[in-house]
Amino acid sequence: MTLAFCGPQISTPNASTIRKQVDSAVGAIFTTFPNPEYLSADQRRSIIMRYTAVLEGNFIYWMTGSYLAVKSDAAREIILENLHEEVRDCHPEMLRRFAIAAHAVPTDLDAMAVYKELRKVRLFIGRLTGIPIVVMMAFFEEFIQRFMAFLAELAASEGSLEREYTDVHGVCDLVHTEGLFRAIEAEMAINPARSSINLLEGVDLLSELIHRIVDGPALAQFGSMQAASLPLCD
Ligand SMILES: [Fe+2]
User: Fold this and answer.
1) 228 CA to middle of ligand 1, Å?
2) What is the pTM of this model?
3) Which of 98, 143, 199, 208 has the fewest CB atoms below 10 angstroms from its CB?
């Protein structure tokens, strides 16, 4: 089943219509999430493992790609500030501590479970098309600030008291989201995307990756491993 965002495409794109599409895509993601209360301990840990396998080593690559892809000074400044915070506060180490405390350190199986969808996102970033990448990152920042409560609940159920990663990203990513939407506006003013470009391509690809993180490995790849039908949130 394709779970990517399939809303109407933007006919006359501007920062406001893009934001509506992104808000809608983020909302759509959460309607499919399982209720943590119905997950087993293995399922809870596996979600944290796959999330860590993706974010720990890729977020800075995604954000660096955004920086390289944009042309406006305003967009560069906003993205650079985000990158600076990510490196200065060592967010990858913060995430690793979170995973260790939840007994959810990722393995090679977790890396393989997300490989296909993660590969598509990486290659998309590598094309360095300015606005669609920043749209994807704005989508991600908006998603993650809401996702943190879900992630923290999974970890708490595993007896973890480590909260720095989820606390920090539940708050600072609100500011990052607003900043990235300003970056989109600034970039559109001097470097508008060609009409043939799908501004939501990265949103679709990242949505598929997030679903893989939460749902688990595709049955075709991993036989009967987990991910069967999980009860959904109300
Ligand atoms: Fe971060």
Assistant:
1) 30
2) 0.88
3) 208
